[in-house]
Specification:
The protein has 110 residues and is mainly α. The chain contains 4 helices and no strands.
């Protein structure tokens, strides 16, 4: 299950990025919730499977989502900051939630 879930979650995150750049995109809130859901789902899979090494790579689609949001249309600056905040909060909270379980995984030193 997990070996297929991780690539699928990355793929659907990129689909959401493309969907936010079409000429008549879905509503702002739908795009934000979709990106947040996929980011949290990737972190959830990483926590359950202890594949903590995918977490740094999970930041890439979130960063690309913010950049695509910024360049797709003329939107107010505060929407870009709000989207970035919404997407990066799970990555800030992830180590706090996983906590002691992730202390055994310290790359490259163990």
């Amino acid at each position: 299950f997990t070996s297929g879930a991780v690539p699928a979650l990355f793929l659907v995150h990129f689909v959401a990025i493309v969907a936010s750049g079409v000429t008549s995109p879905p509503s702002t809130h739908a795009i934000w919730v979709t990106h947040l859901f996929f980011a949290v789902a990737l972190l959830f899979v990483a926590a359950i499977t202890r594949w903590h090494s995918i977490v740094p790579f999970a930041v890439i689609p979130s960063a690309l989502a913010v950049e695509a949001w910024r360049t797709a249309a003329a939107r107010p600056w505060y929407e870009e900051i709000l989207l970035a905040t919404i997407l990066y909060i799970p990555f800030i909270v992830y180590p706090l939630i996983v906590g002691a379980k992730s202390k055994s995984f310290r790359a490259p030193a163990r």
